[in-house]
Write a structure and sequence with these properties.
Three copies of one chain form a homotrimer.
Chain A (H helix, E strand, L loop, with lengths): L7 H11 L4 H30 L1 H11 L2 H12 L3 H30 L3 E2 L2 H28 L5 H29 L5 H13 L7 H33 L3 H26 L3 H30 L10 H18 L3 E2 L1 H20 L7
Antiparallel strand pairs in A: 1-2
Helix pairs in contact in A: 1-2, 2-3, 2-9, 2-10, 4-5, 4-9, 4-10, 4-11, 5-10, 5-11, 5-12, 5-13, 6-7, 6-11, 6-12, 7-11, 8-11, 10-11, 12-13
Chain lengths: ~350, ~350, ~350
Amino acid sequence: MINWLFIFVPLTVVLEHVVPMAYTWIFFMACLAILPIAHLIVESTEHISVHTGDAIGGLLNATFGNAPELIIAMVALRAGLFDMVRASLIGAILANLLLALGIAFLLGGLRYHNQEYNPAASRLYSTMMLTAVISLVVPSTFNRFFAAQAAPRQEELLNLGMALVLLIAYALYLLFMLKTHPEFFSSAVASAEDEEHHSGAAQWSIPKAAGCLVLASVLAAWMSEILVGAAEGTGKALGMSQTFIGIVFLAIVGGAAESGSAIAMARKNKMDLTVGIALGSCIQIALFVAPVLVLASYVVAPHPLELSFGRAELGAMFLAILIGAMVSGDGRSNWYKGVQLTTVYVILAFLFYFMPETAPQ
Amino acid sequence: MINWLFIFVPLTVVLEHVVPMAYTWIFFMACLAILPIAHLIVESTEHISVHTGDAIGGLLNATFGNAPELIIAMVALRAGLFDMVRASLIGAILANLLLALGIAFLLGGLRYHNQEYNPAASRLYSTMMLTAVISLVVPSTFNRFFAAQAAPRQEELLNLGMALVLLIAYALYLLFMLKTHPEFFSSAVASAEDEEHHSGAAQWSIPKAAGCLVLASVLAAWMSEILVGAAEGTGKALGMSQTFIGIVFLAIVGGAAESGSAIAMARKNKMDLTVGIALGSCIQIALFVAPVLVLASYVVAPHPLELSFGRAELGAMFLAILIGAMVSGDGRSNWYKGVQLTTVYVILAFLFYFMPETAPQ
Amino acid sequence: MINWLFIFVPLTVVLEHVVPMAYTWIFFMACLAILPIAHLIVESTEHISVHTGDAIGGLLNATFGNAPELIIAMVALRAGLFDMVRASLIGAILANLLLALGIAFLLGGLRYHNQEYNPAASRLYSTMMLTAVISLVVPSTFNRFFAAQAAPRQEELLNLGMALVLLIAYALYLLFMLKTHPEFFSSAVASAEDEEHHSGAAQWSIPKAAGCLVLASVLAAWMSEILVGAAEGTGKALGMSQTFIGIVFLAIVGGAAESGSAIAMARKNKMDLTVGIALGSCIQIALFVAPVLVLASYVVAPHPLELSFGRAELGAMFLAILIGAMVSGDGRSNWYKGVQLTTVYVILAFLFYFMPETAPQ
């Protein structure tokens, strides 16, 4: 039923050719157009992973799960919109950790009095997130305080070193999750398979699934191109900063497919899946998408991307993780926990909306 | 037995008229005079709430529980002592979270080897507090870093927006606590009723309770007027800053009634009540008293109150919440936990004592 | 088997006399020479404590457990290398909390699928650590922000006051651990005794143990003298700052004996002991070694030591405690938790390596 949104793909293209100056319209139509494409990417990955067996399937899901975010960020990277790229990373983490999980807890809690899930897994996700934030803090601190005295070479080394550390941590995390301790995440995986197998739809063949994946990725890149192209103009028209557009709009659009399924699972009382999707997605962004963008920037971007976030961004992420860990640490949820997470998201969005673009961070 | 302190009400008034320059004496006598008044406010609210049924009674208790703090802050607000108002808010949170809970754990632990309470409720309180701190951090950050570049209109909007978000979160919290999930807090509520009903004293009639409430509130306002009037002079005489007086003296005086009952309950091994009173009080201050003061400042104060706290204040509150959450997160207490909380309070009081008034925060 | 490293004691002395300029060689040989000496100090303390009964034995262990760190820091203090002393304190905490515990979790987890320990004890350690960090933050903040406006006398008072608060908290912690709530730590203590009694070796007599302790302490002081003397030259030769040498090398060397036994216990699946040694050691450093150094500085150092840490040091310690608390809070460990802790250590070591010495902190 999300598929009727595909109508926005041609509409966006037509609009962009006919009235190229209608930035705001183009931007929001491209946002709508990306939603079904992102959904298609996620869906075809899942169909492929059914054919490949558990381990490789898990790997595929973990790697392509954030393909929409990655594609949008890559396009913005090529266009040299570094602030927007950094903002979309932070925004994706906030959107998954606070908004998606918050709405899922809220809507799930309105239907079920109390909901339960595995606290050990959510604790693991929290520590992973904190590790990731620490490794993002280090280059940012360095850039802000010490960059002037250090040779540029050192700065780059630190940046690359951190990207590598994150990727190694991610590889070991996959090993832990898929090979040595799958029982840690088992109820989530089991029900996910379940969901897939009995969701009524027939399995796609590999050629069909692969074809859809390639097609959807090309479409996503195309729409992202239009989206990013219109972003700056939209920001000016609506009085919003590049950072705000990246943190709120790009992040929500990029993660909409996954957020949608996290919320849907909560309505079915499958909280392990909800938590797994929302927090797992955060981890992929911090440990996989971010370092991949750093490495990719050496190839596609005008100059290397540095993971140097401002004070407000790091603070927001740190507080989000802290409250996420506190709220989800006991393996139980109710509607009010959803309100808490959503409230924090709204408060942080407020901050980024009012923050002047030229602020000293 | 606290009632003999009422003698300080006339004494303070007399002293203020006879020796209006004896600031320090007036200040400390007014402190003593407010203690029984605050106790009377809390007591009459409870007597009224017995007549009104559970839901409205809970609402009344939650709203009037911090009436003494609110009255003192309101008087200081009208006098334009904004630093003192802000300091008394922070101080009230520190006093409840660290000092009252710490002394309760310590004295309770000296009598009972281990004491237990419901960890789910204390976890909820912690996340509420963190939400509140986040919403206090945002306007403060904004004021400190971005205010120069932003239009004053934006600053005010942000300030009002945050006050509104806090009040909505508080309303939903009352809904959660009183309507949808009362079992979460049940042992606390049950024993509280218990306590009330069997405490030997006869119930007051509504007219008597309401009369006492009005009388006590008027007295409280009068004494607060004297207290606040003498505060500045006392600070100068003792070499203490406005901030220190607000954070330590006003906060302890304003919360003394509730702190006293939290400690008394711990001595009776009713830890759920202890935790409910001490942490519940913190939440009311952060989510109810603070935004109400912001809104009230548009009416009673010379210019609007902004919730812009300094670095030291925010840091102190953040660390207090973190250690409070860690210490109370497992639902068990012993005397040493009390020592830990009290130690942190002493350390923070040290900091505020030595902090120069003109410090760049 | 560690005893063959004693060969490095004479080697270091000879080298220092023959080629006094070979700083780097001398430094690393002195590092190796200290390892068996530190081990001997720990061992003889344990043998003495067998003769003295539980309470005094526990006290002895708790006091002499960090003797190597204390001796090295004392020597550096006398030489006026204040940055190195402060760095070695931070480094010792990081090394115990992240590196020793991380490697223990990792190696233990490679042998055992899941390992369990008492979460209540690890929670207590975490709150102790946070208390300690708060009391280190306060004088540091004061020095950084307010020192200019405050009288030097005030600064000194605050510094001494904090040292006293820490020592009192430590004394009460010993009382709690050894007298009132030993069952909290019981499994750890029981197995430790066990380990000692049945480790095959005969008990040493008091004279032998005391003699060894004195001899080892003298040797440790001698080697530390050489170590510290060569540290500056080594730093220049290898392009490392005083801070980095203190945080990484001195800290690892000083804590090697204990780290070694923490790891060995994990390999034997005695996780309570592992956690007790690693986290207990952190607490001793923060609550005992640090304030003792402050007090000692009035006697042995050119001017009083102030516990004023830079932004990066405090941030590193704060994040380390937060992640340590999150990781160890549920009483279960596996290899991936070890990877997480070790990763954070590596990231922080990166930061301190690249941090310019003259940085504004």
